[in-house]
Amino acid sequence: MKICQVVSCFPYREYIEGTPVEKGYHIGGVERHVLEISKALIKRGHFVTVLTTRAPHHKNYHEINEFEIVRVPYGVPLYSSSIPFSIFRYLDPDDYDLIHAHAANPTIADLACLKNFGKIPFILTYHNDITKERYAGKMISYAYNKTLGDFLLKNSNVIIATTKSYAEKSIRLKRFKHKIRVIPNGVNLNTFNKNIDEKKIRIHHSIPIQSKIILFVGALEMYKGIKYLLKAFKQVLNYEMTSYLVIVGAGTLSKQLKEMTVELKISDNVIFAGYVKDSDLPYYYSACDIFVLPSTSSGEGFGIVQIEALACGKPVICTDLPGVNEVDPKEVASIHVPPKDCEALADAILKLLENEKIAREMGEKGRKFVEEKYTWDKVSEMTEEVYLSLVE
Questions:
Q1: CA 52 from centre of chain
Q2: Which end of the chain is more exposed for a tag (fewer CB within 10 A), N or C?
């Protein structure tokens, strides 16, 4: 099949190698999902083209060479996304058997759906709701959801959700349950594994070998709940005084969060690693004792970082949000805590730090769990089944 994957932003080779993301050009879990599912579909014998936007300094970068990438001008900036009207010129549905769009920052998906207008099958992976914290963002989100967002959902032949619970709880998806299929995210088990040198990151950041490490990986944005993790970590330091919190990622809250560590008097034990190379990320997971995902809203629909940590044999603490809590619904390898509950989060961290045997057993179960459920081979097979049901 000839497949067109549509996503608002997409990594360049330099991004994979660790060049910090440009302001306004977001590369996160959704964008990496598209990268991995595209590679897996090519392995299954399909032809994949990724249709996306250009970064502001597009000419300075190099493309990933594993499949065709078509980049359109970034377009008109809109809050944290853009409206790339030129997609109408670059996208010809007759060139493909189907279009598979991804909605997190969705406008490019909306425009692709408009251009297609029922010519060929249109699949939408709905990664998460469009939610914003500030007033202006809320107004834009509301207007979008009532117009283009509604059009996109109505005109998608199939809507893929990454978890059943998120699909059931999402206000936006409740009218479209008849066309929803659940296909989870995946993880590369060769890249993320239990046999990675755990000393490399300790040496790099001068963390003593006897100190425990709590790890966060993700965008430094409001919905990630990092401020609650910092407050919880302050409580943890009352009992585990030599432990460290390592924060991997970049975002708009970077300065504010660093200032917060000073105010809380925990800055000596908090390391902001910034945006790191994809090749270095497994080393961070390997070095940690616990991985924490403290997200606070439906802006987090799954949390790919959870399964990356589990693949590396590490126990996870996450918030009890729809979608996020379904990654490990029986808490085989994770502990679920209420969102924004600093005390519960601190208690969960201390439980694992003070019980190494429990933490180790959870990590071992987590690796097996991921092997059974979250490989890209399984995810691409399920995706292919959806495709075939529409083109045959």
A1: 17
A2: C
